[in-house]
Amino acid sequence: MERFKNYSQNSSSDDYWKRRNMRFGRYDGSKKRKRKFVIYLILILVLFGAWPVFRIMAKVKEVRASANELKAAFQDNDIDKLNQKFKDFEKKYNSLQNTSRWIYWAIFIPYVADYRNGLIAGDYMIRAADITIESITPYANLIGFKKGGSSFTEKSGEDRLQTAILTLDKMLVRIDDISENIDKANDFMQKINPNRYPKKFGKTVIRERITNIKASVGGVSSLLVDAKPLVKKLPEIFGKDKEKTYLILFQNDKERRATGGFLTTYSIFKINKGKLKVARTDDVYNLDNSISSHPAAPEEILVYHKGVNRFYVRDSNLSPDFVESIRLFESLYEKSPQEIDYDGIIAVDSKVLVDMLKIYGDTEVQGVTFSAKQDDRCDCPQVLYQLFDIVDRPVNYVKENRKGILGELMFALLQKALGFSPSQYWGILAQTMFGNLEKKHILLYFEEKDLQEAAEKINFAGRIRATQEDYLHVNNVNFAGAKSNLFVTETITSKTKTGSGEREVVIEFKNPYPHSDCNLERGGLCLNAQLRNWIRVYVPEGSKLVKFVGSETEVKTFDELGKTVFEGFMRVNPLGKATVTVTYTLPDNLKNDRLMIQKQPGIIDSQQKLVVYVDNHKLYDGAFDKDKVLSP
Q1: Where is 392: in which H helix or E strand?
Q2: CB burial readout 405-442, b (16+ within 10 A) else e
Q3: How many C-beta neighbours within 10 Å does residue 289 have?
Q4: What is the pTM of this model?
Q5: Quick one: pLDDT at residue 142?
C-alpha cells in the first residue's frame, strides 16, 4: 500500500509538472520530436550541402590554376605545350562539372540554375577551343606557333606566306562546328540574369563581372557569325587560286577627311598564291597630274574648301560611307592613263604604320630611320614628324615622288614581317591588325559582291549602317587646316529626353598646342594651324532640327544615306576651343530601345571621347574607339 501510495504521489507529481510545463510551453512530446527532426534535418542539409560546396570550391581553385597555366602556354606560342595544358584544363573542368552535380537537386534555386547554365556554357566553349586547337595543330607553325622539329622557319619569308595561304582552307574546314558550339554557349549564358545578384559582395564586384562575361560570350558568338563569311574567303582574298590585285590608299588622318584622312599616297599590290609583289607606289598628286581634265569641284568643296575649284582624286573621299567615296574616287581614277583593274581597295591610316613600327622596331628607308618613339617636336610618334618633314616642309628644289617614301616604308615593314619567325611576331601582328579593322584604321572594299557583303557584315567596310533604331554619327572634315587634327581633341556628348523625344548633341573641340611656324619663306613646317572644319551630324531620317549653334555658315538640312543630315562649318584655333550644339527631335515612329553611334574612321582612342545620357542616366563615358550600340 505504501509503495502504491508513493507511486500515486509520484504519479500525481509527474502529472502536475507535465501540466505545468505544458501550460508554459515547456513540454510537449510531439514538439520535442519535431524540434529534434528539424535540428537533424538542418545538420543533414548543412553536411550534405556544405560537403559538395567545399569540394566545388576546391575544384574551382584547381580549374583557375590550370587556366592560368593554359594562358601562359598560349602566350608562349608553343603548340605542343598548349595542347598539353589544354588537356589538363579540360580534365579539371570535367571534374568540376561532375562534382557540381551534387547540388543540382536544388536547381529550383535561381542561383544554382545560373551556376549550372554557366558551367554548361563553359563546356561548349571548351569544345569550340578543342576543335580549334585540333584544326590548327598540323599547321601551327604557319600561323605563328612554335612547333618542335619543323623546318618552316628555315624557309624564306615569301615561301612561309605562300605555304600559309595554300593550307589556310584546311585550317578553316571546321569553322562551322566551332561557331555552333560558341552559339550554344551563348544560349546558356543568356539565361543568366545579372540583376538578381548584388553589385558587390564585400570588395568583390559581382553583377558587373557577370554582365561582362555574358557580353564577352555574346560578342564572340556574334563576331564569329558575322566574320565567318569573310574568314572562309581568306584563301581567295590572298590569291590561292588566281592572282589578286589590290589598291592600297594611305589616308593622312592628321588632315582628317570623311573616311579617315586626306588621300596622300597609293600602292598597287599583287598577290598570287601567297607571293607578294609591289607593282607601283606613287604620290596621289602625281596620279592627279596624269588626268588631263578635272571636272568642276562639287558644291561642298566650293563652299567649304580653300582655293579649290576642281575635283581631284586626293579630295574624292567626301562621303562618310566608304563605298560611296570609292565611287567618287573611281569616277576620277578611270580618267587616268595609270588606271589598272583591281580586285579591291584597302585604305589604311597612320596608326597602322605606327603599330607596325612598334612591333618590328626602327626601320630605315632611303637613308632615313623611322621610329614609333615619341617625338617632342610634335608630341607624336617620330615617324609622323619625319614623314611630314620630308613631304611638307618647303624647299628650294623639286622633290620627286615626295610621298612615295610612305609606300616604301610600308613595304619595308611588310618585308620585315615576312622575314621574322612567325612564332615571334605573326600572332601579335594579326591581333593588332584585327583591332585596327575593328576601330576603322583599316577599311576594306572588294569588287566581288560576295566578298564585299562579307566585309560589310563584320563592319570592316566603312559603311554608314542602315538601322530602324536610333542613330548618331558625327563627321568632321579638315579643309585646308594643315595637320591640326594631330593636336585637336574632341568630346561628343549626347543627351536625350525620352518624354519629348528631344536630343542635344554637343561637340567640344580643344587645341592646347601653339601655332606652328607656317612661314614658307623661312621653310617652316606648318603642322598646327587653324582647323577649318566642315561638320555633318547624321541622325534618324525624319528628325527635325530645333537649333544648330556654333556654325559660321548657314546650316543645311537634307537626307542622305538613309539619314537626315545637319551640316555646318566652324574653325578651331591653336590654343583655342570651339563648341557646336545641335538640338533636334526624333521621329515618333522610331524604335528607340537601342542607340547606334558610329565612329568616324581615322580617329585614335585618345583623340575623341563619347558621353551618352538618356533621361539623366549615363549610358557611356569613355573613349570613342569603335561603333557603339547602347541600350537605355
Answers
A1: helix 382-392
A2: bbbbbbbbbbebbbebebbebbbebeebbeebbbbbbb
A3: 11
A4: 0.81
A5: 64
